[in-house]
Amino acid sequence: MNPLIITAALTGAEVTREQQPALPVSPQEIGIAAAECAEAGASIVHVHARLPDGQSTQDPVIYEQILREVRQRSDVIVQISTGGAVGMTPQERLAPVALRPEMATLSMGSVNFGQDVFLNAPSDIAVFAHEMLRLGVKPELEIFDTGMLATAKRWLRQGLLPQPAHVDLVLGMPGGMAATPQTLLYLVSELPPECTWSAAGIGAAQLPVVTWAILLGGHARVGLEDNIYYRKGELAVSNAQLVARVVRLAHELEREVATPAQARQMLGLSGG
Predict the structure, then answer these.
(1) What is the pLDDT of residues 46-61, one digit of tens each?
(2) Which of 51, 60, 240, 254 can bridge 55 by disulfide, Cβ–Cβ 3.0-4.6 Å?
(3) In sequence order, what DSSP letters do the residues of the chain get, joined into one string?
Protein backbone atom coordinates (compact mmCIF):
# COMPACT_ATOMS: atom_id res chain seq x y z
CA MET A 1 0.00 0.00 0.00
CA ASN A 2 1.00 3.62 -0.50
CA PRO A 3 2.06 5.53 2.61
CA LEU A 4 -0.84 6.79 4.71
CA ILE A 5 -1.71 10.47 4.30
CA ILE A 6 -3.10 11.86 7.54
CA THR A 7 -5.19 15.03 7.40
CA ALA A 8 -5.76 17.00 10.60
CA ALA A 9 -8.99 19.02 10.55
CA LEU A 10 -7.98 21.57 13.15
CA THR A 11 -10.90 23.87 13.91
CA GLY A 12 -14.03 23.65 11.75
CA ALA A 13 -16.93 26.08 11.79
CA GLU A 14 -19.19 24.65 14.47
CA VAL A 15 -17.13 23.58 17.51
CA THR A 16 -16.76 26.19 20.26
CA ARG A 17 -14.14 26.77 22.94
CA GLU A 18 -16.84 26.05 25.50
CA GLN A 19 -17.23 22.56 24.04
CA GLN A 20 -13.51 21.96 23.50
CA PRO A 21 -11.03 24.24 25.35
CA ALA A 22 -8.12 23.01 23.17
CA LEU A 23 -9.72 24.27 19.94
CA PRO A 24 -7.28 26.52 18.02
CA VAL A 25 -9.05 29.72 16.95
CA SER A 26 -6.59 32.54 16.17
CA PRO A 27 -4.21 32.32 13.18
CA GLN A 28 -1.27 31.88 15.56
CA GLU A 29 -3.04 29.09 17.46
CA ILE A 30 -3.88 27.37 14.19
CA GLY A 31 -0.27 27.69 13.04
CA ILE A 32 0.99 26.15 16.29
CA ALA A 33 -1.58 23.34 16.11
CA ALA A 34 -0.60 22.64 12.50
CA ALA A 35 3.07 22.35 13.46
CA GLU A 36 2.21 20.02 16.33
CA CYS A 37 0.17 17.83 13.98
CA ALA A 38 2.96 17.80 11.40
CA GLU A 39 5.40 16.72 14.11
CA ALA A 40 2.97 13.98 15.17
CA GLY A 41 2.66 12.65 11.60
CA ALA A 42 0.07 14.64 9.65
CA SER A 43 0.95 15.73 6.12
CA ILE A 44 -2.17 17.87 5.48
CA VAL A 45 -3.97 20.36 7.72
CA HIS A 46 -7.54 21.29 6.86
CA VAL A 47 -8.28 24.81 8.10
CA HIS A 48 -11.26 27.04 8.79
CA ALA A 49 -10.85 30.67 9.82
CA ARG A 50 -12.44 32.28 12.86
CA LEU A 51 -12.92 35.85 14.01
CA PRO A 52 -11.44 36.85 17.40
CA ASP A 53 -14.82 36.17 19.03
CA GLY A 54 -14.78 32.62 17.65
CA GLN A 55 -17.32 33.20 14.87
CA SER A 56 -16.62 31.45 11.58
CA THR A 57 -15.40 33.58 8.68
CA GLN A 58 -14.13 33.18 5.13
CA ASP A 59 -12.29 36.51 5.19
CA PRO A 60 -9.22 36.10 2.92
CA VAL A 61 -7.22 38.44 5.17
CA ILE A 62 -7.53 36.01 8.08
CA TYR A 63 -6.83 33.02 5.84
CA GLU A 64 -3.68 34.78 4.61
CA GLN A 65 -2.58 35.15 8.24
CA ILE A 66 -3.26 31.45 8.83
CA LEU A 67 -1.26 30.43 5.78
CA ARG A 68 1.67 32.56 6.95
CA GLU A 69 1.53 31.18 10.50
CA VAL A 70 1.41 27.58 9.27
CA ARG A 71 4.11 27.93 6.64
CA GLN A 72 6.63 29.58 8.94
CA ARG A 73 6.44 26.59 11.29
CA SER A 74 6.28 23.52 9.02
CA ASP A 75 6.06 22.27 5.44
CA VAL A 76 2.66 20.63 5.98
CA ILE A 77 0.15 20.92 3.10
CA VAL A 78 -2.54 23.51 3.80
CA GLN A 79 -6.05 22.66 2.63
CA ILE A 80 -8.56 25.46 3.11
CA SER A 81 -12.29 25.00 3.52
CA THR A 82 -14.73 26.31 0.93
CA GLY A 83 -17.56 24.90 3.02
CA GLY A 84 -17.29 27.76 5.46
CA ALA A 85 -20.36 27.69 7.66
CA VAL A 86 -24.04 27.03 6.98
CA GLY A 87 -25.70 30.18 5.65
CA MET A 88 -22.67 31.75 4.00
CA THR A 89 -23.01 32.79 0.36
CA PRO A 90 -21.06 30.91 -2.31
CA GLN A 91 -19.07 34.07 -2.98
CA GLU A 92 -18.02 34.27 0.68
CA ARG A 93 -17.05 30.62 0.77
CA LEU A 94 -14.96 30.79 -2.41
CA ALA A 95 -13.09 34.01 -1.58
CA PRO A 96 -9.97 32.54 0.13
CA VAL A 97 -9.22 30.29 -2.86
CA ALA A 98 -7.75 33.43 -4.47
CA LEU A 99 -4.79 32.99 -2.07
CA ARG A 100 -3.79 29.90 -4.09
CA PRO A 101 -3.40 27.36 -1.29
CA GLU A 102 -2.17 23.95 -2.38
CA MET A 103 -5.58 22.37 -1.74
CA ALA A 104 -9.18 23.31 -1.02
CA THR A 105 -12.30 21.31 -0.31
CA LEU A 106 -15.07 21.04 -2.90
CA SER A 107 -18.39 19.59 -1.73
CA MET A 108 -20.14 17.72 -4.52
CA GLY A 109 -23.73 18.37 -3.51
CA SER A 110 -26.19 19.44 -0.84
CA VAL A 111 -26.90 17.52 2.34
CA ASN A 112 -28.90 17.84 5.55
CA PHE A 113 -26.45 19.00 8.22
CA GLY A 114 -27.94 18.27 11.63
CA GLN A 115 -30.90 20.68 11.80
CA ASP A 116 -29.61 22.74 8.85
CA VAL A 117 -29.04 22.24 5.14
CA PHE A 118 -25.57 22.54 3.61
CA LEU A 119 -26.50 23.89 0.18
CA ASN A 120 -24.31 23.39 -2.89
CA ALA A 121 -26.13 24.11 -6.13
CA PRO A 122 -24.60 22.51 -9.24
CA SER A 123 -23.99 25.96 -10.74
CA ASP A 124 -22.01 26.99 -7.65
CA ILE A 125 -20.01 23.75 -7.64
CA ALA A 126 -19.09 24.44 -11.27
CA VAL A 127 -17.84 27.94 -10.39
CA PHE A 128 -15.79 26.58 -7.49
CA ALA A 129 -14.28 23.85 -9.66
CA HIS A 130 -13.41 26.31 -12.44
CA GLU A 131 -11.71 28.73 -10.07
CA MET A 132 -9.66 25.98 -8.41
CA LEU A 133 -8.54 24.75 -11.83
CA ARG A 134 -7.69 28.29 -12.98
CA LEU A 135 -5.66 29.03 -9.85
CA GLY A 136 -3.89 25.68 -9.66
CA VAL A 137 -5.58 24.61 -6.42
CA LYS A 138 -6.09 20.86 -5.97
CA PRO A 139 -9.70 20.12 -4.98
CA GLU A 140 -10.57 17.49 -2.41
CA LEU A 141 -14.00 16.24 -3.43
CA GLU A 142 -16.15 16.02 -0.30
CA ILE A 143 -18.67 13.17 -0.40
CA PHE A 144 -21.44 13.22 2.23
CA ASP A 145 -23.77 10.77 0.47
CA THR A 146 -23.66 8.29 -2.40
CA GLY A 147 -25.35 10.67 -4.82
CA MET A 148 -22.43 13.07 -4.44
CA LEU A 149 -20.02 10.33 -5.51
CA ALA A 150 -22.15 9.62 -8.57
CA THR A 151 -22.07 13.34 -9.38
CA ALA A 152 -18.29 13.49 -8.97
CA LYS A 153 -17.83 10.52 -11.31
CA ARG A 154 -20.12 12.09 -13.92
CA TRP A 155 -18.28 15.41 -13.75
CA LEU A 156 -14.92 13.66 -14.02
CA ARG A 157 -16.09 11.82 -17.16
CA GLN A 158 -17.22 15.14 -18.62
CA GLY A 159 -13.87 16.79 -17.88
CA LEU A 160 -15.35 19.28 -15.41
CA LEU A 161 -12.95 18.22 -12.64
CA PRO A 162 -9.19 17.61 -12.82
CA GLN A 163 -7.90 14.05 -12.79
CA PRO A 164 -6.73 12.10 -10.94
CA ALA A 165 -9.24 13.10 -8.28
CA HIS A 166 -8.74 13.13 -4.54
CA VAL A 167 -11.93 12.17 -2.68
CA ASP A 168 -12.88 12.46 1.01
CA LEU A 169 -15.63 10.11 2.19
CA VAL A 170 -17.45 11.56 5.21
CA LEU A 171 -19.37 9.07 7.36
CA GLY A 172 -21.45 9.48 10.49
CA MET A 173 -22.72 13.03 10.06
CA PRO A 174 -26.40 13.44 11.06
CA GLY A 175 -28.19 13.73 7.72
CA GLY A 176 -25.41 11.98 5.82
CA MET A 177 -24.16 8.42 5.41
CA ALA A 178 -24.04 5.93 8.26
CA ALA A 179 -20.58 5.11 9.61
CA THR A 180 -20.61 1.37 8.91
CA PRO A 181 -18.10 -0.95 7.23
CA GLN A 182 -20.73 -1.76 4.60
CA THR A 183 -21.10 1.91 3.69
CA LEU A 184 -17.37 2.42 3.29
CA LEU A 185 -16.90 -0.79 1.31
CA TYR A 186 -19.64 0.26 -1.11
CA LEU A 187 -18.16 3.73 -1.57
CA VAL A 188 -14.67 2.35 -2.18
CA SER A 189 -16.07 -0.07 -4.75
CA GLU A 190 -17.62 2.88 -6.61
CA LEU A 191 -14.60 5.21 -6.62
CA PRO A 192 -13.41 6.53 -9.98
CA PRO A 193 -10.28 4.87 -11.34
CA GLU A 194 -6.86 6.25 -10.41
CA CYS A 195 -8.23 8.46 -7.63
CA THR A 196 -6.82 8.76 -4.14
CA TRP A 197 -9.21 8.78 -1.23
CA SER A 198 -9.48 9.47 2.47
CA ALA A 199 -12.20 8.79 5.01
CA ALA A 200 -13.49 10.88 7.90
CA GLY A 201 -15.76 9.72 10.72
CA ILE A 202 -17.82 12.22 12.69
CA GLY A 203 -17.88 12.04 16.48
CA ALA A 204 -17.54 8.54 17.89
CA ALA A 205 -17.22 7.21 14.32
CA GLN A 206 -13.80 8.81 13.87
CA LEU A 207 -11.66 6.00 15.25
CA PRO A 208 -13.38 3.04 13.53
CA VAL A 209 -13.68 4.84 10.20
CA VAL A 210 -10.00 5.77 9.99
CA THR A 211 -9.04 2.24 11.04
CA TRP A 212 -11.08 0.79 8.19
CA ALA A 213 -9.53 3.32 5.79
CA ILE A 214 -6.00 2.30 6.82
CA LEU A 215 -6.82 -1.37 6.19
CA LEU A 216 -8.46 -0.68 2.83
CA GLY A 217 -5.54 1.35 1.48
CA GLY A 218 -7.14 4.76 1.83
CA HIS A 219 -6.06 7.75 3.84
CA ALA A 220 -7.31 9.19 7.13
CA ARG A 221 -8.76 12.45 8.40
CA VAL A 222 -9.00 13.19 12.12
CA GLY A 223 -9.17 16.33 14.24
CA LEU A 224 -11.23 18.48 16.56
CA GLU A 225 -13.46 19.72 13.72
CA ASP A 226 -14.93 16.23 13.42
CA ASN A 227 -14.56 14.85 16.95
CA ILE A 228 -13.75 16.60 20.22
CA TYR A 229 -13.18 13.44 22.27
CA TYR A 230 -10.23 11.08 22.63
CA ARG A 231 -12.47 8.39 24.07
CA LYS A 232 -16.00 8.38 25.46
CA GLY A 233 -16.31 11.07 28.11
CA GLU A 234 -12.68 12.23 27.75
CA LEU A 235 -11.96 15.36 25.73
CA ALA A 236 -8.93 15.25 23.46
CA VAL A 237 -6.10 17.46 24.68
CA SER A 238 -5.10 18.54 21.16
CA ASN A 239 -5.41 17.80 17.47
CA ALA A 240 -1.94 16.28 17.63
CA GLN A 241 -3.13 13.70 20.16
CA LEU A 242 -5.67 12.44 17.62
CA VAL A 243 -3.03 12.37 14.87
CA ALA A 244 -0.58 10.46 17.06
CA ARG A 245 -3.15 7.74 17.68
CA VAL A 246 -3.60 7.22 13.93
CA VAL A 247 0.16 6.98 13.52
CA ARG A 248 0.30 4.26 16.18
CA LEU A 249 -2.53 2.40 14.48
CA ALA A 250 -0.79 2.62 11.12
CA HIS A 251 2.44 1.28 12.57
CA GLU A 252 0.61 -1.61 14.24
CA LEU A 253 -1.05 -2.39 10.91
CA GLU A 254 2.32 -2.11 9.12
CA ARG A 255 1.37 0.92 7.05
CA GLU A 256 3.98 3.60 6.49
CA VAL A 257 2.94 7.18 7.29
CA ALA A 258 3.47 9.74 4.52
CA THR A 259 5.61 12.82 4.92
CA PRO A 260 4.35 16.07 3.37
CA ALA A 261 6.77 15.51 0.48
CA GLN A 262 5.41 12.01 -0.15
CA ALA A 263 1.83 13.28 0.11
CA ARG A 264 2.58 15.99 -2.45
CA GLN A 265 3.93 13.39 -4.85
CA MET A 266 0.92 11.09 -4.40
CA LEU A 267 -1.55 13.96 -4.82
CA GLY A 268 0.23 15.57 -7.75
CA LEU A 269 0.98 18.83 -5.96
CA SER A 270 3.76 21.05 -7.21
CA GLY A 271 5.26 22.07 -3.87
CA GLY A 272 4.94 23.94 -0.58
Answers:
(1) 999 999 999 999 999 9
(2) 51
(3) -PPBPEEEE---SS--TTT-TT---SHHHHHHHHHHHHHHT-SEEEE-EE-TTS-EE--HHHHHHHHHHHHTT--PEEEE-S--STT--HHHHHGGGGG--SEEEEE-S-EEETTEEE---HHHHHHHHHHHHHHTPEEEEEESSHHHHHHHHHHHHTTSS-SS-EEEEEES-TTSB---HHHHHHHHHTPPTT-EEEEEE-GGGHHHHHHHHHHHT-EEEESTTT--EEETTEE-S-HHHHHHHHHHHHHHTT-PBPPHHHHHHHHT----
Q: How far apart are CA 192 and CA 197, in angstroms?
A: 10
Q: Which fold has domain 6-267?
A: TIM Barrel (3.20.20)
Q: Which of 4-8, 41-45, 57-61, 118-122 has the lowest mean pLDDT?
A: 118-122
pLDDT tens string 224-240: 999 999 999 999 999 99
